[in-house]
Amino acid sequence: MSDGPDTRGGAAGRNLLFLREEELRLAQDLLFFGYRDFTAGPDAILAEMGMGRAHHRVLHFLGRRPGLTVGELLSILAITKQSLSRVLTPLVEGGYVAQAAGRADRRQRHLSLTPAGEALERRLFERQRETVTRAYREAGPMAVEGFRHVMRGLMGPEARRALERLGAPDRPSVRAVPPGKMDLGGKAP
Asked: Which of 16, 22, 121, 131 sits CB 3.0–4.6 Å from 59 for a disulfide?
């Protein structure tokens, strides 16, 4: 008798290997360490300014969707009004975020980045873009598509709806091409 799944029988056995506890723990390790290093650059920039990751999330989503209402931002971030207020107040007072009353409903507050906020968000994005670009290039287009599938699989229904509201397509923007199927210029046939 064997101690684990039979991988000699072909693809079916091999496909189950990634579901073993050891593999799942490795996935958690990868997520934790990847996130740590992904956020390290922006964390350092923001720490110099007396800000943190919560500020970064607000800047990121307002950069993605200028004009979000406070309610929409609360829904995306899945935090309380009190928590958002603690983060939003210094961003507004620091001149990074502007608020405007809604045209149809004056009680609504629409949020957008000021030029200073846009510059800061861009600086943070550029820092993380370098990390993601390097990782995507090393992994290749098929792995990038697999990563996207896994990340969507990790999201719950509310997170998927929030992603859709941001206008992020829930379909691949990278055409998965097996290695060796690209022309000499790096393009798919």
From this structure: 121
pLDDT value at position 102?
77
Question: Of all residues in the chain, what percent carry a pLDDT higher than 70?
Answer: 79
Helix (H) or strand (E) holding 44: helix 21-48
Which residues make Cβ contacts (< 8 Å) with residue 174, sequence separation at least 6? 141, 144, 145
Determine the pLDDT at residue 177: 40
- CA 47 to chain CA centroid, Å, is 20
Which residues, including other chains, have CB under 8 Å from residue 69's CB and lie 6 or more apart? 102, 108, 109, 110, 111
> Are the beta carbons of 134 and 45 closer than 8 angstroms?
no
* Best CA proximity match to 54, nearest among 24, 79, 75: 79
**CB proximity list for 30: less than 8 A, separation 6 or greater:** none
- What pLDDT sits at residue 182? 40
Q: Which residue has the tokens 């009004």?
A: 81
Q: 73 and 108 in contact (C-beta within 8 Å)?
A: no
Query: Is the Cβ–Cβ distance between 137 and 147 less than 8 Å?
Result: no
Q: Residues 27-40: what's their mean pLDDT?
A: 96
Neighbours of 45 (CB within 10 A): 14
